[in-house]
Amino acid sequence: MAVSIHIDHVKKVYEKNTVIQDLSADIKSGELFTLLGPSGCGKTTLLRMIAGFNSIEHGTIAFDDQVINNIPVYKRNFGMVFQNYAIFPNMTVYRNIEYGLKNKKLPKDEIRKRVEDIMETVQIKQYQDRYPDKLSGGQQQRVALARAIVVRPQVLLMDEPLSNLDAKLRIEMREAIREIQKKIGITTVYVTHDQEEALAISDRIAVMNKGDIQQIDIPERIYSRPYNTFVADFIGHSNRFTGKVEEQHGGTAVVKMQTGYVLTVDHVKPLAAGQEVLVYVRPEEFVFTDKDHGMKATVTVKRFLGKYIHYVVDCGTGANIEVTADTSNAERIHEPGETIYLGVNARRANLFDTEKEVTLLEGVERYV
Amino acid sequence: MFKKGVRFDFWSFVSLLSLIFFGLFLVIPVIRMLVFSFQSTEAPFTVENFVRFFSRKYYTTGMWNSIKVVSASTLVVILIGVPLAYITTTFKIRGNRLINILIIMSMLSPPFLGAYSWILMLGRNGEITNILKQLGIPIPSIYGFGGILLVFVLKLFPYIYMYTKGALKKVDASLGEAAESLGYHGLHKVVRVSLPLVLPTILAGATIVFLRAFADYGTPRLIGEGYNTLPVIVYQEWVSETGANAYFASAVAMIMIIVAAVVFLLQKYITSRKNYTMSMLNPPKAKQLKGVPNVLAHAYVYLITLLATLPQIYIILISFRNTKGVMWADGYGFSSYVNVFTKSIKSITNTFEFGVIAIIVVIILGTLFAYLTVRKRNFFSKVLDVFIMFPYVIPGTIFGLLLLMTYNRPPLVLSGTAAIIIISYVIRRMPYTVRSSAAILRQISPSIDEASASLGYGSMQTFFNVTMPVMIPGIVSGAILSWITILNELSSTLMLYTGRTQTMTVTIFQEISRGGYGTAAALSTILTVTMIVSLLIFFKLTKSEDIDL
What is the crossing angle of helices B517-542 and B345-375, to 10°? Predict the structure, then answer.
């Protein structure tokens, strides 16, 4: 029942603004595919094009082999969960969930059974006779989810479904959505601007910016092997250094950072000696070392956060460098003003082209 | 037939419907009147009508009369209404709720009833006049400029009061406190802080007052006695025995529409540049005054409310007075009501018949049009918005004339039918329902429509299953206002009625004109009671004691 979605060179123009220029992506059957990006990046626009609330100016969107461009919304057979839930205020929980089924000419018993089952699944059975204004945010969220999936749609679309919930409930609901989605195996497109949520819930993530997809990959690789500097900066935090290639043998390049620190990186595309590159280092990929093995840094800010310690240090590059250390591994806590020596976990560092700001590592693809 | 990707759905059908409706009953008539105003019986194109208007003293005097009395009324209304609104929101006044309801009720009664009642009290043979005469106290004539001013002011100050009060309630109390902390207090504080913030609203209210007064036919006709204003002139030109001059009447009507439109657009332009948004963390609270200021505040509020309600109370009282023919007789009873139910029952049934049909059409079209203007933002819906609000600038007499001139000849003859009156009611009174429905729709997230569509329902089913049920409170409160103002409609009906399609307001007006005061009073009382009941239902349903104009 689950379908794949093929987005092929689509374009979206609002009045005279081109929101999406030329975007393609393939979403696999049964996966939870997340569109992640800053506000205004076009992620919701794309979702609404799949739903049919937005027209498609150019290109096609297909469910399996069927192009849906000209199929009206109400015939597309998808379920949608809205940012504000969009529970019908004039209907009880039961009637909200039943609404989509009543349209399908099913026997009454069948409708009843399906509604009962789904209420069981999302755990809202005890609220079935309540009106929406008597439900909490989390409960409304469950009703919205139940209403969307009870009709057994081909595709489930979710537009920032958790953004109106408080932090604790967000994590709880995120797990619930993940679990239910896997259980029924429905192809799901999930929009969020919350990277932690995206990393936790997705099978694959498409990171979007300015109406285009920057990278599609599984969460781990999006984080550890960003395709370009936008992804590296947007997902988590990265410290940016410049460096110069000293020499390269096969895939192994020796790069000297502006701070004088030398690191050896594997799986690098062929580069010329002397070429300038960007070196990106995550805060947790520094190692505390000694004068002979590290670059000199001065601690400017120290924040003790319990599980780990967060430092801002000055490496003489003019930029604030962020460093985190696990509390359990830290030998001692450094105070502001103190001089420390930092090494870099070279296997986890990323190199980017200075001009195109695109990865220089072999095997890191834009679309996977 | 349609462009690829553009589907002919339910809303396309509604758009088409609205186009046909406003095209037939607004656009074509206005164009026809415009063409007429540049024609005469001899010439296919001439400016002679306008030349005649601006060169004859009779007409220019009429125009100046209109401008003078309307401007003066607007000014006095502001001077009375703004302090009233300020006092009732800032200070605790005993019986505040009742006062508010009384003022709203006086606002919603037809203006010519005020004129009629004041004539009965202060006119040449008025009750109070006679008493004062016996005491040897002469009083100035109520007829002419002064009388029109009196009626307009007492009739229209509630608009300014309601508007200003609404705005003052939205001025965060912290602003006043901030002003005090900076050394402003008392009147100085009001003038420097509160007043500038509510000024755009006062201006909007003043525009409504101006347009209402400018459009009113009944009041100057009854109490003006030769103090002719433009609506009276248009009416007379149209019905005059000496060659009903549709061309000249059209020209005068066009001049009126232009004046009204200019005032309306000017206000829109000025307020669009001065629009404040305030955080409402700290809503204002009424304070308890003490001593002399307290007495003065109460005296002011009570006096104004009494003056505003006096005409209606007086009419209700005299409706129970015995009559003999058109003369008063001694004692009290139900003779006037007996007269009404034997002679004028048809006008009562007509009023309710036309009113019910009109309000049904208003609800259906108003709800659909509200949806179009709010949810389908495009060029067409902006045009529709203008059409819906256009009746604000067309005086009723002129709207009646528009319809009459267009539909008194083939291919479509509607003159003399009930249909033409109902059409007039629908177009003139629909804005209340549209505005109120649109206001509630703006608060409803469009995603509930989308949710319904995603669950397989087309646009029409979605509207009737989900959107409309949620809109009901807004639809009902707007519809009640439309209903009350339909019942009170006089000016366009006066142009459109025939013997068979006479309504209560027309009968009242005729009875007053020929001195049948008892019947007029009884009919007015029936009208007032209907209105009060409707208003109470409105308050009950909206759970508030204010109306949103």
Answer: 30
A73 to B454: CB separation less than 8 angstroms, yes or no: yes
Considering just the CA atoms, what is the radius of gyration of chain A in Å? 25
Measured from the Cβ of residue B314, the count of other Cβ atoms closer than 10 Å reads: 18
Low-confidence ranges of chain A (pLDDT < 50): none
Rounded to 5 degrees, what are φ and ψ at A253?
Answer: -115, 145
Report, in this order, helix, strand and coil percent for chain B, each rounded to 5.
75, 5, 20
Residue A271 carries which side chain, given as an amino acid letter? L
The region, left, alpha or beta by phi > 0 then psi within -120 to 50, assigned to residue B183 is left
Contact of B350 with B414, CB cutoff 8 Å: no
Kindly identify which residue of chain A lies nearest to residue B5, measuring between CA atoms.
A70
Q: Residue A99 and residue B447: Cβ atoms within 8 Å?
A: no
Q: Is B456 left (phi over 0), alpha (psi -120 to 50) or beta?
A: left
A-side interface with B, Cβ within 8 Å? 51-53, 55, 69-70, 72-80, 82-84, 86-90, 99-100, 103-104, 144, 147-148, 151, 157
Find the CB nearest A53 among B445, B450, B470.
Answer: B450
Q: Which residues contact B528 (CB under 8 A, 6 or more apart)?
A: B105, B109, B312, B315, B316
Chain B residues with a Cβ under 8 Å from any Cβ in chain A:
4-5, 7, 9, 445, 447-448, 450-458, 462, 465-466, 469-470
Specify which residues A289 forms β-bridges with.
A341
Which residue of chain A has the CA closest to B459? A74
> What's the CA gap between B59 and A266, in Å, rounded?
97
Contact between chains at B451 and A151 (C-beta distance less than 8 A): no
Tell me how far apart the alpha carbons of residues B76 and B84 are, in angstroms, rounded to a whole number.
Answer: 12
> What integer pLDDT is reported at residue B3 of this predicted model?
40
Cis peptide before B411 (omega within 30 of 0): yes
Give pLDDT tens digits for A177-211. Answer: 999 999 889 999 999 999 999 999 999 999 999 99
Q: What is the pLDDT of residues A234-255, one digit of tens each?
A: 999 999 999 999 999 988 999 9
- H-run or E-run covering B500: none
Going by C-alpha positions, the residue among B291, B305, B350 that lies closest to residue B157 is B305
Query: Contact A86/B470, CB-based, under 8 Å?
Result: no
Residue contact A148–B465, C-beta within 8 A = no
**CA atoms A271, A274, A276, A280: torsion sign:** positive
Nearest to B508 by CA among B478, B537, B488: B488
Count of other CB atoms within 10 angstroms of residue A331: 7
Ordered alpha helix ranges (H), chain A: 43-51, 93-102, 108-122, 137-149, 167-184, 195-201, 219-224, 229-234
CA dist., res. A267 & res. A12, Å (int): 38
3-state secondary structure of A199: helix
Residues in chain A within 8 Å Cβ distance of B466? 88, 90
**Min Cα separation A165/chain B (Å):** 18
- Is B447 within 8 Å of A86 when comparing Cβ atoms? yes
AA identity, residue B2: F
- Bridge partners (DSSP) of residue A244 are A256, A276
Q: What separation, in Å, do the N-terminal and C-terminal C-alpha atoms of chain A show?
A: 24
Give residues with Cβ within 8 angstroms of B458, minimum separation 6. A72, A74, B9, B10
Partners of A189 in the β-ladder: A33, A157
Residues in chain A within 8 Å Cβ distance of B467: none
Contact B450 A90 (CB under 8 A): no
Whole-model pTM over 0.90? no
Amino acid at A99: Y
Closest-CA residue to A24 (of A327, A312, A366): A366
Residue spans of chain B under pLDDT 50: 1-5
Of B5, B453, B466, the CB nearest to A73: B453
Q: What single letter denotes the amino acid at residue A338? A: E
